[in-house]
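Example 5.3 — P-type Na(+) transporter
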Amino acid sequence: MTNETNHAVTMDRAEARNTSTPNERQSFKPSGTITTTLYNYPKHPFLLSAEDVAQALSTDLDKGLSTKQVDDLHNMYPKNEFDVGGTVSWYTILSKQIFNAMILVLICAMVLSFGIKDYIEGGVLAVVIIANVTIGFYQEFKAEKNMDALRSLSSPSAMVLRDGKTQVIPNAEVVPGDIVFLKMGDTVPADLRVFEAMNLFCDEQSLTGESLPVDKIIDTGIHVPGTDRLAVTEGEVGIGDRVNIAYATTVVRKGRGRGIVIYTGMQTEVGKIAAASTKKQRKPGRSMNYKKYGRRQPFLGASRRVYDTILKFLGLSEGTPLQRKLAMLAYVLFGCAILLAVVVFGAHRFEFRSDTYAEVVLYAVSLGIAIIPESLVAVLTITMVVAVTVMQKANVVVRDLSALEALGGVTNICSDKTGTLTQGAMIVRKAWLPMSHTYIVHDAQSPSDPKVGRVTHSEEKEQHPRRDHDQEGSALGLRFDLPDEPEIPAETFDDDPEPDAQMTDPLKAFLYSAALCNLATVRYDAPEAKWQTTGEPTEIALQVFAHRFDMGKKALEAQGWNQISEFPFDSTIKRMSVIYDAPSDALFPTHSSIVFTKGAVERILDLCTHIGYGESKLPMTEELKNRVMEEMNSLASQGQRVLAISYREWDGKFEDTPVNEKVESSSASDAPDSSVVNEKISDGGGDSGDSGHDIRDEVEQGLTLLGLAGIYDPPRRETKPSIAEASNAGIKVHMLTGDHPETAKAIAKEVGILPKNMGILSKEVARYAVMKATDFDKMTEAEIDALEELPLVIARCAPETKSKMIDALRRRGAFMAMTGDGVNDAPSLARADVGIAMGSGSDVAKGASKIVLTDDQFNSIVSAIRQGRRMFDNIQKFILHLLTSNVGEVILLIAGLGFRDGTGLAVFPVSPLEVLWINMATSSFPAFGLGREQAASDVMRRPPHDKKRGVFTNQVMIDMLVYGILMGTLTLSSFAIIMFGVHSGDFGNECNQRFSEECRPVFRARACTFAELTWMILLSAWEFKSLRRSMFRLDPDDTSRFPLFKDLYSNRFLFWAVVAGGASVFPVVYIPYINHRLFKHTAITWEWGLAVAFTILFVFGIEAWKFVKRRWNLLENPAVVRGQFHQGEQESSNFPRIDSVNSFREWASVGRRISFSRLRRPSRPTIRHPHSEHSGTNDASAEAGAGAGSQIV
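Solution (predicted structure tokens):
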């Protein structure tokens, strides 16, 4: 944005202010009245210090606003929202209700009825149209409002400081004076005056047009552009040059910081632009500019705009794929209705005599009404609303209704590990310091409480490697009778329990790096009497471990440690660094700055030139690297996430050297000049851009490895059953994690993604079951496609790997759900068929996703899929129910064209209002009830549905024809029996318009047919509770002798809808005037028996067709394809039973030795494997899952 534009925006803002002071703005109270307040800034905040801004807003930089202040400010200011109009336009919804095929047919029928002066019929149709439009409008408007409310649950949030505590609140609740925390990936909630910035870069392209992220500063010295003069007034500097201001809606691309909220809502810079901007984006080719596109363009542009408008009004270009598909179906049926009307006129030879025209039109109206399922759209909308509400209660926020339909077709889930499959509550279990010191945390009950549990120290002694049973057991299955392992000599055990850890210099150096290279906070909240933590779980675990030795970050900084710079964690290089100046009483020299680095072991190890600290410090060699990797694999095989902790001494003070001095590479020095570092950081250094990577590479080299931290994140208890449920449903689960392959493999085994005995997999599948992202990324598409199975676990996963996995799955015809939480995950979430963001993730990730999990749990994904399948099944059921009745009615009326009265006109077996009553009042409520059906017992034992076919599967289409033909045939038969079998085929005259004695047989036959058709449609709703199971035993697992009534009553809405609809037949048949004048039928007697008999035959026919489908497996859904391993299932013994005496003696001897060893050393403390402690598995399963088993110390 140019300076002139910035100045113009500034002047626009100045005009909106009151004239009393230059820096006052208008504030809108909830009532809408305008009052003069509030922003008592002597100058614009970018010209003021943070302290002056805080004073003007009566806030505290260290504690934030108080609760009382927040309440007062909420009453004083409007919500922090852009008032640019609602997201729901009522007139658009109303037009959609009017301009849909169902209502258009009714409108045509109404117009024709009034045209032939049938005012009763036309009046009833008018009432039905108004009622249908009103109900549909109300339901869809309510649904849109509910969706807006649900979207607000996943809208950007802000972390603020109030009453000295951090809180996460919706952006709308932010008020001026709030202290806001910013980190990479956050959306800035309001205009902020930045007062703390650590490599803070914001993307302001949407506001200023600046393509590169802007480096934020905290200083007040803003220069007038193009001069060396400091700005003193607001108009001298445009918004793009106010680099100590972070603007609302911009995105933090890297770094972190804090700021004071100075303007909110429509008073922000973006709010001002949003209020002034009304330009809408049009589709390509819609321009009418003939000068730019030629003389034909105005005509083409106008016609395309009209076309878009028509499609929008008709619902063919908006809504979910299913809604558009059903809208198209509706218009196809509308066309069929017109065609059937032509058929009616053709049956009467297109004779439009004045005395017969009304009769012919009336019959055409009947057919038009019969073919249209008038309540279909309303039922679909309500079903989706119910599904969204149910999923919200299950911690799943649906941001896009299309995701509801897509969930039922998911074939693969690509899930993160931390916080999704696991608890996300990490604890440092082990810390290994070179070369043989191990610190182990025992009895830690809470991941945030450093005072619970104890830390012991041990020195490693001679190790006796365990045999790899998986490898031995996979040798073509030839040898499973494995001899027992050699008994470990007793002298390797120390009879004394492990001593408590004592502080040493190497341990202190390790803790310095773990605590200072860390963004988490750990503090004790005295009023609540508990420990409070903020930050990422991994960093919290390290910070808590440091607090166990009273060496937390805040305590160290209070001792004089001064942070100079920070290189935030970068997922592409998997490390983070900070630079500190040490106090005089620390281990490190004060004349040099200290670089602390932590990250993935492989990445850190490649940067290390030394290992250890103090007297144990050694040059790094290949042998020592191998030793470190062995220790890392040992920790990782126990399911622990392993981080490397390192440091280096900078050559002098980081900020002391002149700025323009050039870095020279030297073998004698492993440190670059700090001046160049500072220069590059000020020019956009950090972890983005070429110069940023250059300076980071200079800083993060020549490191010294201080040790490894083994961090354990226990799997959630519900994860394994959920994975088993997904596997039974034909869904394969993949783990895409940033952890080490061994850690990922151990956790994958524990939750059931991988078998504990890899030998049950084929050699090819087992080879690629676990892969590093680097190996996977190197493979070509042809190589990936040639794999028998795609990897189940990808470790050290980068964002680009997720996108490559999506492409690989898509080439195999898979339909995948992808989880993510970071900014870099946004592309993969957007590309996936169903992007699922974590509620605790970044706002960018949430914006790119279709679903947000508020609890971050994997079982919520499976619950969402279950609800998606339930909704899909229910839509199939009520579509089958509605369309079956339409098919039956159309067959009945088409056949009725052969019934002629004395004047040669066709006599309809059911009148138009009878059809309308059945479609609207009778069958609609059972359809609503079918939409509320609970999930079938086997819904998660079926494979994913075919998304291309959608709800219109072969079974639904054939069932619709079979049941519709059966319904039409039986109702036609009953009408024919009464008319020809009892009344000799005398159809009277003008029986379609009025009642007379000669028309009594026709009216009685109509009444019987009406009752029969109504009952058939109602009972078919009960039958369609299952498309294959008998209505008399819907649940195959039910052992009751006659569970019919229990099964039917399980859906009370459907039950009473059917009962009430069946009972409504009697008053409609018997009430005088209504029966003759409106419905064109009369009271009946013995005909009730015929109606009941044919209804029973209809139920018998449905049951017979279901039996045929079950008996000969017709139209059956394909079975779930079972592979070599069923994910999530509890594995039995991995070894077959060996019926040999030697084998029995060997296994018995193992048992005797184990029992003897337990009796021999009862007091020796046992450190149980983390898997068995947290997941409830026994020691044997923990040993099989981790590869290391329990350790006796």
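Remark. The two ends are 67 Å apart (CA to CA).
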